[in-house]
Design brief:
The chain has helices spanning about 1-45, 50-65, 70-80, 85-105, 110-120, 125-155, 165-175, 180-215, 215-220. With about 220 residues, it is mainly α. The chain starts with a helix and ends with a helix.
Length: about 220
């Protein structure tokens, strides 16, 4: 325990740097995944060509099936080493759960609610933004939260291609046989995953409360 505390005191700048790099890796990939996957999921709901939906889901699922190290290795010749290939790989892994939850969330909205919205004169865009998006928010946020936890975990492997992060502490600790370094890297990733998941849960509740307060008529459809 003394060795662990001494390591934290002596190396806290390195620990903070690794934590910052891990946050950049994770947040960048999840943010990109959300920006891409949510609109695509919505478009698929309104797409009448079922075969094209199957192709999109097949491609997104294909990225999920590629082993993490294999995908990182494939991207190295294209982007070199460092954060760029790591963020791209993590972004590709984030697509499927967010896409699936967005698609399922929009499809789960009661058809009677959609008919009521159309009867009130809502356009397709208004129906999406004012009715379907708020009602499917729990599904979407669930996909984002699950994805974020996975990405924080997978981001530890990014150290193997020079992207840094908490995984760098683990790899370095294994190299020099320092258990305290390995422990800090591992427990740091666990605590970070729990903390971010909790913050996203608070964000979900705030968004739902904010919407219901400002759009009571839409929630009453």
């Amino acid at each position: 325990m003394n060795a662990l505390w001494n390591f934290i005191v002596e190396r806290y700048p390195d620990i903070l740097k690794a934590l910052q790099e891990h946050l950049i890796l994770s947040s960048s990939s999840v943010l990109l995944g959300t920006i891409i996957a949510v609109p695509i999921g919505i478009l698929l709901v309104y797409n009448r060509a079922g075969w094209s939906n199957r192709i999109v889901f097949f491609i997104a699922n294909l990225f999920q099936t590629i082993p993490s190290l294999a995908l990182l290795a494939i991207l190295i010749p294209l982007l070199g080493i460092g954060m760029k290939p790591a963020i791209l790989a993590l972004f590709l892994y984030s697509l499927m759960p967010i896409l699936r939850n967005t698609y399922d969330g929009f499809n789960a909205v009661d058809k009677a609610v959609l008919q009521s919205a159309r009867g009130m004169g809502y356009s397709t865009a208004q129906t999406i933004l004012k009715v379907q998006l708020p009602l499917s928010l729990p599904y979407i946020m669930s996909g984002i939260r699950i994805t974020t936890v996975y990405i924080i975990s997978w981001a530890t492997l990014a150290a193997l291609i020079g992207a840094g992060g908490l995984g760098q502490l683990i790899v370095s600790g294994l190299g020099v046989n320092k258990p305290e370094m390995i422990f800090i890297g591992g427990i740091g990733a666990v605590v970070l995953a729990f903390a971010v998941d909790g913050l996203l849960g608070l964000l979900e509740r705030w968004l739902s409360k904010h919407y219901h307060q400002n759009h009571p008529r839409d929630t009453a459809i």
